[in-house]
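#struct-help
A.M.: can someone run this one for me? Single chain, 91 residues.
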Amino acid sequence: MHSDEEELELDLPPVFELSDKVKILNPIKNDGTYPGKKLGEVLINPGEVGYVISIGTYLQRAYVYAIRFMDKDIVIGCRKEELELIERVEQ
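D.P.: on it. Structure tokens below:
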């Protein structure tokens, strides 16, 4: 249980929606969860563009957005702080 002063990200709706076009703000490095790449290797550079393909959670505290980067044909999990909305496709 969390205190009244501490607001969990999951208490709010996700910032991004499925199909949103987003841009990476900081280099995304392999934290050991991306197979076939070295630990610490840069997977995605700032400015690269991808699309939200699913929304999950991390430790029941935060949203993790699965972003597909078409140019590199990879999917990377990102937190909201790592992303900027470029375009929202109304469904």
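A.M.: thanks! The first strand starts at residue 21 and ends at 24.
D.P.: also worth noting: The chain has no helices and seven strands.
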